[in-house]
Design brief:
The chain has about 80 residues and is mainly beta. The protein contains no helices and 7 strands. The protein is globular. The protein starts with a strand and ends with a strand.
Length: about 80
């Protein structure tokens, strides 16, 4: 899976599962509530597609969350 390095912050648009990989077969290891600000360190366009959207963000800890559950990035800085 190709990872794109890009650091930024987003807001969870709804309750969001945090997973160990970019696919739903992985059980959630954490859940964040809508309105929670999350920092991401990159993304992939090759995660499991949900409703036609295969973009998933990854965190500093190496966990993943689906981009369809977030609002537009608050701030993004490509590295």
């Amino acid at each position: 899976m190709l990872k794109i390095n890009s650091t930024g912050k987003i807001i969870a648009a709804k309750r969001l599962n945090i997973r160990s990989d970019a696919k739903r077969v992985e059980p959630p290891i954490a859940v964040v509530e809508a309105g929670t600000e999350l920092t991401y360190y990159g993304y992939t366009e090759e995660g499991e597609p949900i409703d036609g959207n295969s973009k998933w963000y990854f965190t500093k800890k190496g966990t993943w969350f689906w981009s369809g559950g977030v609002a537009q990035p608050v701030k993004e800085t490509n590295k």
